[in-house]
Design a protein that fits this description.
Belongs to the radical SAM superfamily. NifB family. With 520 residues, the chain is α/β, with parallel strands linked by helices. It is built from 15 helices and 18 strands. An 8-stranded mixed sheet has the order 10-9-8-5-4-3-1-11. It has a 5-stranded mixed sheet with strand order 14-13-12-17-18. Strands 2-6-7 form a 3-stranded antiparallel sheet, with helices on one face. Bound molecules: FE(8)-S(7) cluster (CLF) and iron/sulfur cluster.
């Protein structure tokens, strides 16, 4: 089901697109105050921060709305919504909606009743699963009966689970009251443009009120409905995340304007995702050679939009039937056959007890980071660098290099450690042997990092990483990521200061094309 090839057209190095973003960044003077529930900054990486309590309660264990929560809490999707009412040039309808999924994956479609059983089965098996999202495989609001029937069943049987919805926004204004009525606290709208001229290059048509619209007219209708829906939701206190697909040469510079427009309408979080585009996906963009952004281009755009409304950088573009922590995919454990045969024991008390333990771990992690941060106080340096981390979750360096399917990327400076993204990679260790081809792609994926933190690593990959200028660090196995990274960074600064090493800039890195592969 997957395509793993790297897109040959991806240039690694400073490009026109990157130069354009840096220019836009210089012109973008901070962020306007957002209205509605988007007033405060998003769930910070350190905890409640300056968030009002009622907002914090909504985001604290939502893995997409709080970067910090995503290390600890899981989400699941149920694929109950097959139809769609628009066409995006990065979508092939054979596959799941690409607004919240990697292109090229196909989910197993469920009825609302099957979906409700699946939610109970997953909630019983994965007590840290706190959020149920409907994100396709088409558009949830182009399938309102199935979507809302599913919410109704889950509200009744598993009321502790937060409900979440992701839509292209065309039908949104018609359903806002129903969404509010089902206590859906989180809605994502994919907004790729606020200028119909740009939109006409992304959307060949939309279908509304029994009529097909094309070109400028279609894009105008879509943007008007999206922004109207966003305003209506935020007026009702529903937290809104905006997803935008970054398409170099089409909307990359324009997304700063999108960011301003959604911020001023109360959006809480902006998630700029890279276009994933390969000919084998059979999409218009895939077939006409449209490339996705490089890692540096994506980060520059995200940095340029960062302000009062935080940027989401931990999105995994997961599939319409995803299950588990954001960096993992346990959907294969919960196929319809398996669920129907499961003896489900949904025990609210044991879920709460497990989540209390998770909270204890979370508090310990934050305390360890604060302690290490205090020791960084007074350090003077302009050095800012990236490191990669192999983790299975819980905020720990607890994955072997050879077993990592992705690496988290952290930016280190005298301000501390900041999560800035992740890089999906091919497994290095294949049945006990190291795979040289994979190692090359891993190095390309983390080529902008100075070091890679792992629980364990073999001699061969270690030597190759050093040759590529990336320091393998295995001295912090099973310790907290942020505390360890800050400790390493202090040591790095000391070595630079003493002249033992010279600080150099790293190059760009590649964003892996191709679909998300099931872990099973
Ligand atoms: Fe799902 Fe989306 Fe809700 Fe999260 S995913 S409907 S907000 S529960 Fe999350 Fe997946 Fe990214 Fe979506 S990582 S694709 S942002
Ligand atoms: Fe495809 Fe989603 Fe766009 Fe519909 S909204 S065309 S399913 S990417």
């Amino acid at each position: 089901m997957d395509a793993t090839t790297q897109h040959e057209g991806d240039a690694v190095g400073t490009s026109d697109a990157l130069a354009g973003i840096l220019q836009a960044k210089a012109e973008h003077q901070g962020c306007g105050t957002s209205g509605g529930s988007g007033k405060a900054s998003c769930g910070s990486s350190a905890g409640q921060g300056d968030l009002p309590t009622e907002i914090w309660e909504k985001v604290k264990n939502h893995p997409c709305y709080s970067e910090e929560a995503h290390h600890h809490y899981a989400r699941m999707h149920v694929a109950v919504a097959p139809a769609c009412n628009i066409q995006c040039n990065y979508c092939n309808r054979k596959y799941d909606c690409a607004n919240e999924s990697r292109p090229g994956v196909v989910s197993e479609k469920l009825t609302p009743e099957q979906a409700a059983k699946k939610v109970l089965a997953v909630a019983s098996t994965i007590p840290q699963m706190t959020v149920l999202g409907i994100a396709g495989p088409g558009d949830p609001l182009a399938n309102p009966e199935k979507t809302f029937k599913t919410f109704e069943l889950i509200n009744r049987t598993a009321p502790d689970i937060k409900l979440c919805l992701s839509t292209n926004g065309l039908a949104l204004p018609d359903h806002v009251d129903t969404i509010a009525g089902f206590n859906v606290d989180h809605v994502t709208i994919t907004i790729n443009m606020v200028d119909p001229e740009v939109g006409a290059k992304i959307y060949p048509w939309v279908f509304w009120k029994h009529k097909r619209y094309t070109g400028y007219e279609a894009a105008k209708l879509l943007t008007d409905r999206q922004l109207q829906g966003l305003e209506m939701l935020t007026e009702r206190g529903i937290l809104c995340k905006v997803n935008s697909v970054m398409i170099p040469g089409i909307n990359d510079n324009h997304l700063v304007e999108v960011n301003r427009a959604v911020k001023s309408r109360g959006a809480f979080l902006h998630n700029i995702m890279p276009l994933i585009s390969s000919p084998e996906h059979g999409t218009v963009f895939g077939l006409n050679g449209q490339r996705g952004p490089t890692a540096q281009e994506l980060k520059a755009l995200q940095d340029s939009c960062e302000g009062e409304m935080n940027m989401m950088r931990h999105c995994r573009q997961c599939r319409a039937d995803a299950v588990g922590l954001l960096g993992e995919d346990r959907s294969a454990e919960f196929t319809t056959d398996k669920i129907m045969a499961m003896d489900v024991n949904y025990d609210l008390e044991s879920r709460k007890a497990y989540q209390a333990l998770v909270e204890e771990e979370r508090v310990a992690k934050v305390a360890a980071k604060q302690e290490e941060l205090a020791s960084l106080a007074g350090e003077q340096s302009d050095i800012k660098l990236l490191v990669a981390v192999a983790t299975k979750g819980s905020g720990l360096i607890n994955e072997h290099f050879g077993h990592a399917k992705e690496f988290q990327v952290w930016e280190l400076s005298t301000a501390g450690a900041k999560f800035v993204g992740h890089r999906r990679v091919d497994l290095y260790c294949q049945g006990g042997y190291g795979e040289e081809d994979s190692l090359e792609t891993i190095i390309r994926a983390i080529n902008d990092c100075h070091a890679v933190f792992v629980a364990k690593i073999g001699g061969c990959p270690k030597a190759d990483l050093i040759k590529a200028g990336i320091e393998p660090v295995d001295g912090f196995a099973h310790e907290f990521i942020e505390k360890s990274a800050i400790t390493w960074f202090k040591d790095y600064l000391a070595k630079v200061k003493s002249g033992e090493i010279e600080h150099t800039q790293r190059g760009d890195a590649e964003i892996r094309q191709g679909a998300l592969i099931s872990a099973a």
